[in-house]
Amino acid sequence: MRKFFKEFKEFISKGNVLDMAVGVIIGGAFSAIVTALTNQILMPIINWVLGGDGGLQGAYTFLIEKKDATGAIDFENSIYIDWGAFITAIINFLLIALVLFIVIKVINSTKNRLEALKKKNEVVEEKTQPEPEPEPEPVVDENTELLKEIRDLLKEKSKE
Question: What are the residues facing 49 on neighbouring strands?
């Protein structure tokens, strides 16, 4: 489990171009699912843990607070930091990254298994093929042998 999270951390922090391209495509496809999971399941639980009434939905820091005629906060004209939206975006990102990591990990492990199986099959094929028969020695004609002996004898006499 520790190795899994270490690989997940490396994936998020480094990644390579292919992994990131796949991540963008699959991330777009999963964004609706992840947004629904976050907004409809995780955020209500987080809001409940934080106190129930609005939770992160009411987590604003006002830099400039404007009120309308009724005394209610005018969010259109106020300047504020919406911490709830920011935390929701972080949760969405982590869920999408986790799903992409798992998909790419499954694809890579399947690819590695197929390569290992292919190598194993190549080794088995090499072992099952019969060894080639040695080439028969060339048949030497008696006249050729006789001529070679004469040549060798002449070479020896010429050296003396």
Answer: none
- Size (the chain), residues: 160
Residue type, 103: V
- Block residue for tokens 């799903």: 99
Name the CA radius of gyration of the chain, rounded.
39
DSSP state string for the chain: -HHHHHHHHHHHHT--HHHHHHHHHHHHHHHHHHHHHIIIIIHHHHHHHHTSSSGGGG-EEEEE--B-TTS-B-TTT-EEEEHHHHHHHHHHHHHHHHHHHHHHHHHHHHHHHHHHHHHHHHHHHHHHSPPPPPPPPPPPPHHHHHHHHHHHHHHHHHH-
User: Rounded to 5 degrees, what are φ and ψ at 81?
Assistant: -105, 125
Q: Over the stretch 91-134, which tens digit does the pLDDT of each residue have?
A: 878 877 887 788 889 989 999 999 988 888 877 766 666 667 77
Question: pLDDT (tens digit, 9 = 90+) per residue, 135-154?
Answer: 777 777 888 888 888 888 88
| Amino acid present at 2 | R
User: Token pair for residue 108?
Assistant: 């890579």
Domains of the chain by residue range? 2-55+88-132
Cα dihedral 67, 72, 75, 81, rounded to 10, equals: 90
